[in-house]
Amino acid sequence: MGSPLGFGITAASRPGHSRLGAELERLGYAELWVNDTSRGDGLATLGEVAGGAARLRFGIGVVALSEQAPATIAARASVPGVPGDRLTLGVGSGSAASLDLVRQGVAELRGLLPGMPIAVAAVGPRMAGLAGELADAVVANWALPDRLTFVRDHVREGAERMGRPPPRLVAYVRTAIGPGAANRLEAEMARYRRFGPYYARAFDAQPDEPIGVAVESGDPAELASALAAYRATADMVVLRGLPAGDAVDAWLEIARAGAPLNHAS
Q1: What average pLDDT does this structure show over 94-109?
Q2: What is the CATH number of the domain that holds 137?
Q3: Can you tell me the distance from the alpha carbon of 31 to that of 237, in angstroms, rounded to the nearest whole number?
Q4: 125-134 helix and 145-162 helix, angle to the nearest 10 degrees
Q5: Which of 67, 114, 148, 260 is the most exposed place for a label (fewest CB within 10 A)?
Q6: DSSP alpha helices (H): ranges in the chain?
Q7: Strands 168-177 and 137-141, bridge-based pairing
């Protein structure tokens, strides 16, 4: 039992992408999230994978406001094949790490995209508080369950300041399955540590164990046990896949390991 599960992928074109959304829906996932970086267009990728999914919701996690103006983001947000009422648009401060940039960016996006849910990425306490003030969802990245509780508390405080209900907490949980899973998780942590001081501070605040899930056996029961504390803390847990290869079937291997958890919730 616990919160519903989503699935997360990187943004890139792959053969067979068009069947991914329908397959995730069949497996019982509630949402599909795609990142958006200079290396891959997350909104374009969503357009490729959404076909055939009648109920699956979608999310972008996240567009950097330091790199793209709200007007540019809004223009990209109309994606063929992705119903606007099933899309959550995630934004973050990016390299600027600026609360003001996020506050202003979300306000502009509200005007440009009325009715579209806006998520804000939060790693530290001040951004979590701001997200509580103005977002529909908060994307927590690289957080163990205790850290998720820390983020949730600051989100709740921000919401209380504005007299509004707290936004839902979406937790990205890096998930690797099969031989080499632990090495892939450690390599991804090392890669993110180089992205900026906010990630380094988050890692240094959680020094005792890898942040995420690595199940070398691929056993769904072992995966369920590893995810239980995350699911007890967040409103939505996104299994952010770390596959052994880049083919769609490698992503689906992770999704299929998590499928029994969807049906048991």
Answers
A1: 94
A2: 3.20.20.30
A3: 10
A4: 50
A5: 114
A6: 20-26, 42-49, 70-76, 99-112, 125-134, 145-162, 181-193, 197-204, 220-231, 248-264
A7: parallel
Pairing of strands 31-34, 57-64: parallel
Q: How many domains does the chain have?
A: 1
DSSP reduced 3-state for 96: helix
Structure tokens at 85: 């009422």
pTM value is 0.94
For residue 1, what pLDDT band results from cuts at 50, 70 and 90? low
Query: Which amino acid type is present at position 102?
Result: V
Distance (Å, whole) CA 131 – CA 137:
8
Range of the domain at 226: 5-264
3-state secondary structure of 118: strand
Q: How many Å apart are CA 168 and CA 131, to the nearest integer?
A: 10
CA-wise closest residue to 119 among 190, 51, 205, 110: 110
> Torsions phi, psi of 188, nearest 5?
-70, -40
